[in-house]
Specification:
By secondary structure, the protein is of the alpha/beta class. The chain has 10 helices and 20 strands. The strands form 5 sheets. The chain has a 7-stranded mixed sheet, with helices on both faces. A 7-stranded mixed sheet has the order 14-13-12-15-18-20-19, sandwiched between helices. Helix 4 packs parallel to helix 5.
């Protein structure tokens, strides 16, 4: 659904990407509006350099570009980056500098506008990046839903950057104001790691990787039921996270090529590192950021494994899982199979049976179920 963001003297037509049929959600929220209104009132100098972090679908980037500011947008989400690019084009705005969460920030920033990330580890990493900038006069303004701004959140801003205050609530959103007072001479290690003794694994994790401090229960169950067959030539780990499933699949199927796909730059970087650290030959692996399996050759994989997310940014949704399943059906060879793990209540068995014509539960516990379907 195309929605119009009307603030002050601008009107922006914005869409959520990837495009979905019958989309009912708008591509911006009240926190975006609040951030824009505040920055409009601040009356920045023409050509000021704005650093925008975690812009979901491009509302902040499009507004800043329309005002003639120099814009650098930083995002860990490949889908958000694509949304920003497409919405800039749709509004006939020039391109901006777009960086991933792994890139070094430019040093000549005048102000930082941030959408508060869900993951506190990513928030800390980004605050540390800002703290490392040499300019002493940087202000950071973050926007979020009121329910997501906790005392512990504000303490992170205070600890890593400087004096922090909040605005009054408006449309169930709030702004966080933080002045850069601390100077970090160098960033800490970009990854943390944990061991999985049962499988002789040590997994490195960048800040925005799901379950980055221990192996999640779903992945542990999946490790016990991995595909293993000497006839398997190509396995895709879709939504790979830190690559734990890709590593085990590679170990169990030494003849197979392994492709690890995620829409998070930090996840793909973690998976790449972990496959290398566990002596999986680079000639056998390909790790990539992508929107599910866009661009993959039909009938080119024997197995697709996935643990689908059921959120896009702050929104609960099943369209990502459905896209994963549809893409897998297209990319799988005849008689190829998809192996899916998810919470019982998500009903993946029904979705897969509708799409593939068959679905079997191969393992379960009180919370999770593993379902398999053949093309």
């Amino acid at each position: 659904m195309k929605t119009t963001l009307q603030i002050a003297d601008i009107a922006l037509e914005l869409l959520r990407y990837p495009l979905q049929k019958n989309e009912t959600l708008q591509a911006w929220d009240a926190a975006d509006e609040y951030l824009i209104e505040y920055t409009e009132e601040k009356k920045l100098e023409p050509g000021a350099h704005i650093l925008i972090m975690n812009d979901g679908f491009g509302a902040l980037s499009c507004w800043a570009s329309s005002k003639g500011f120099r814009v650098t947008s930083v995002n860990d989400s490949w889908l958000s980056q694509q949304s920003i690019e497409q919405n800039l084009k749709a509004n006939n705005l020039g391109d901006i500098e777009r960086l991933s969460s792994l890139d070094t920030l430019p040093s000549d920033i005048d102000i930082v506008l941030m959408k508060l990330p869900k993951n506190n580890r990513l928030l800390v990493w980004q605050l540390q990046q800002v703290s490392q900038l040499t300019s002493k006069e940087i202000s950071l303004v973050a926007g979020a839903k009121v329910k997501d701004v906790h005392t512990s959140t504000l303490k992170l801003f205070e600890k890593h950057l400087g004096t922090t205050q909040t605005s009054l609530a408006k449309k169930k959103s709030r702004l966080i104001f933080c002045q850069k007072e601390k100077q970090l001479d160098g960033l800490p290690a970009a990854t943390t790691s944990f061991d999985v003794p049962d499988y002789q694994l040590t997994l490195a994790n960048h800040a925005n990787v799901f379950s980055s401090e221990s192996l999640d229960i779903a992945a542990y169950l999946m490790l016990q039921h991995m595909p293993k067959n000497e006839n398997i030539k190509h396995i895709i780990d879709l939504g790979c996270g830190n690559g734990v499933l890709a590593i085990q699949a590679a170990k169990l199927n030494p003849q197979a090529k392994i492709t690890a796909v995620d829409e998070s730059h930090m996840a793909v970087a973690s998976a790449t590192m972990n496959l290398e650290n566990h002596d999986i030959a680079p000639s056998r692996t390909h790790c990539m950021v992508n929107n599910c399996l866009d661009g993959f050759t039909p009938n080119s994989a024997d197995v697709v494994m996935c643990n689908p997310p059921f959120h896009q940014l702050q929104t609960v949704t099943d369209h990502i899982a459905w896209q994963m399943f549809c893409d897998a059906r297209r990319v799988l060879e005849p008689k190829g199979r998809i192996v899916v793990i998810g919470n019982r209540h998500l009903g993946y068995h029904t979705k897969l049976k509708r799409l593939f014509g068959n679905a079997q539960v191969i393992a379960s516990n009180r919370k999770f179920v593993i379902v398999e379907a053949y093309k």
